[in-house]
Specification:
Length: about 425
């Protein structure tokens, strides 16, 4: 199930509730005066008004809703939901259902939240945020077509809805439509240039298109907007790797780890750079730290296995690769790495079995075809070697090792008739 940022939060709902409701209906019980009131006094006064029994209907619902807003702001979710249940029972409105849906969604009960958003749309078909929020649940459940239907309505109803553009960009990114994702994330940024989430989304979409310079620039915007959030530095570091600027990548990874010592991805990325630089002890320490943070991380096991192979700790490397396969037998990467290790250890049959599995699970990996082709050469299966090397070149036309191996085979071996 996908995760999506909540479009509205309790603090925003306080402002919306106290502003729009009061403007629409005039003075209300337990009004909040921003010049003199503090939330605790307001809640106490509101509770007294509710308890005295003089309110009914819309006024009572308003009082429950207003108090729920402040409970939500203080992250007292259960109290807020209880008040909204009472408000809706007295006088249901689209806003109350949206408010409760957001809070219920935060508890993990997406079915109940979905029901609230649907009821909000029934009560007010012109409520743009209700469509956006219903779309967020469609999105988390991979119902992308339904999510897009709702988001298109939301954008039509409110062309300045940052949340609708942002979420629609996320849907397009999830379906591989990076150009459309960039358009929507850009629209969200134009409306709210301080929204770091839209920069993150656009950076990821640019990276998917191979435009690492623009991706780097967007992650730089995230760092500027949220300098104390390590994930922005991490994203920029990964783009620096693509741009072959390893010194900048290391600076950002160090910054990311300093800000968020529980971020396993930063340790893995730094470990990979350190391994490439020959600092194997430091690289090993980073991968081990990543595994301490995420014990089931296949990427961390693969990274540590590669360091162990390069330092000739073959038994440890094999153990890491076996563990990675046990975690997910349908991930091609551990087989692709274990094949060469088995070959190095002299077990050509095991190596061939790993290459076969790697190719079956990921038929677009040129390296696995190259390695299997080399294994066929060892077994003097030259026709099969040629077929694999030609496939590797078709997948990756600039694969010089595959081209050189193919030329040598063709020079000394005639294909079977």
């Amino acid at each position: 199930m996908r995760r999506v940022p909540t479009i509205l939060v309790g603090a925003c709902l306080v402002v919306v509730w106290l502003a729009t409701s009061a403007q629409a209906t005039g003075a209300r019980p337990c009004q909040f005066d921003t010049r003199r009131d503090v939330p605790s006094d307001f809640v106490e006064r509101c509770s007294a008004v509710i308890a005295d029994g003089t309110l009914s209907g819309e006024s009572l619902a308003w009082a429950y809703g207003a108090r729920a807003s402040f409970y939500a702001e203080r992250e007292e979710r259960d109290l807020a939901i209880a008040d909204l249940d009472k408000a809706i029972a007295v006088s249901p409105t689209a806003f109350l259902h949206v408010f409760r849906g957001i809070l219920v969604k935060g508890t993990g009960d997406e079915d109940k939240a979905f029901g609230d958003f649907e009821e909000a749309i029934r009560l007010d078909p012109g409520y743009a945020d209700a469509y956006t929020l219903r779309a967020s649940i469609h999105f988390t459940r991979d119902r992308f077509g339904l999510a897009l239907d709702d988001l298109n309505v939301a954008v039509r109803l409110d062309p300045r809805s940052v949340g609708a553009y942002f979420l629609r960009g996320g849907v397009y990114a999830a379906t591989g439509e990076s150009d459309r994702a960039i358009f929507d994330f850009s629209a969200a940024i134009q409306i709210n240039p301080s929204f770091d989430g839209a920069y993150r989304g656009r950076a990821s979409a640019y990276s998917a298109l191979g435009d690492h310079e623009r991706s780097w620039a967007d992650y730089s915007a995230v760092v500027r907007l949220r300098p104390y959030d390590g994930t922005g530095y991490l994203g920029r570091a990964l783009e620096s790797v693509f741009l072959n600027d390893l010194s900048s990548a290391m600076r950002d990874l160090n910054a990311s780890i300093a800000l968020d010592a529980k971020g396993a991805r930063a340790f893995m990325a730094r470990g990979a750079i350190l391994a490439d630089q020959g600092a194997f002890a430091d690289a090993l320490a980073d991968f081990e730290q990543a595994l301490e943070l995420e014990p089931n991380s296949i990427a961390a096991y693969l990274g540590r296995a590669q360091v162990n192979i390069r330092t000739r700790r073959y038994t440890a490397a094999m153990s890491d690769l076996d563990t990675a396969i046990a975690l997910d037998a349908n991930d091609a990467r551990p087989y692709a790495l274990r094949g060469p290790l088995n070959s190095l250890l002299g077990d050509q049959n095991a190596a061939m079995a790993d290459y076969d599995t790697a190719v079956r699970l990921n038929p677009l990996d040129a390296t696995s075809y190259y390695n299997r082709g080399a294994a066929h050469v060892i077994r003097r299966e030259y026709d099969r070697a040629v077929a694999d090397l030609e496939t590797a070149l078709r997948l990756q036309p600039g694969y010089e090792q595959a081209r050189a191996a193919l030329d040598i085979i063709k020079m000394f071996h005639r294909p079977s008739l």
